[in-house]
Specification:
This protein is of the alpha+beta class and 147 residues long. The protein has one domain (7-130): Gcn5-related N-acetyltransferase (GNAT) (Aminopeptidase, 3-Layer(aba) Sandwich), CATH 3.40.630.30. The chain contains four helices and five strands, in the order E-H-H-E-E-E-H-E-H. The protein has helices spanning 16-26, 34-44, 97-111, 125-130, and strands at 7-10, 50-56, 62-73, 78-88, 117-119. A five-stranded mixed beta sheet has the order 1-2-3-4-5. The N and C termini lie far apart (50 Å).
Length: 147
């Protein structure tokens, strides 16, 4: 069943307490720390080149969020957009909320003139393939320790 009652909107400063539980559940290779979340949240809300959306039910519960950003590249002859994090509450998944968050991200990417919208996903490949994303690269990372 497609959920159209849940509002997709830009995150606000006072959404932090309702987004934190979702962010905490997101991690696979890092453990989110509350202090780091609290430091990053006000910097991300409304930041240039950043998209931070929440999915809010009519009852005021936040059941999902999307964090994206954009940057300039030589490869794409300009701006590209990237979804850093997309999380939907486990009980809300398969209701269309994730799809709607991604649709909003695509609209935002088009509005800023991005050549493409990309993301990395370890667990949700079939979801993104169903949204017409293609598997186009291997994702590499190196965990850095602070000197």
């Amino acid at each position: 069943m497609l959920d159209r009652q849940t509002l997709i909107r830009p995150a606000r400063i006072d959404d932090d307490e309702r987004v934190w539980p979702l962010a905490r559940e997101f991690a696979t290779s890092f453990t989110p720390e509350r202090a780091a979340f609290d430091a990053a949240w006000p910097q991300l809300v409304g930041a240039p080149h950043t998209l931070l959306l929440v999915a809010e039910t009519p009852e005021g519960e936040i059941v999902g969020y999307l964090l994206g950003n954009s940057h300039l590249t030589f490869l794409a002859n300009g701006r590209v957009a990237w979804v850093e994090e997309l999380m939907v509450d486990g009980q809300t998944r398969r209701s269309g909320v994730g799809r709607r968050l991604m649709e909003h991200a695509e609209q935002w990417a088009r509005s800023i003139g991005a050549a493409y919208l990309a993301l990395a996903s370890r667990r949700a490949g079939p979801f993104y393939l169903a949204l017409d994303y293609e598997d186009s690269a291997v994702f590499y990372k190196k965990t850095l320790t602070l000197a």
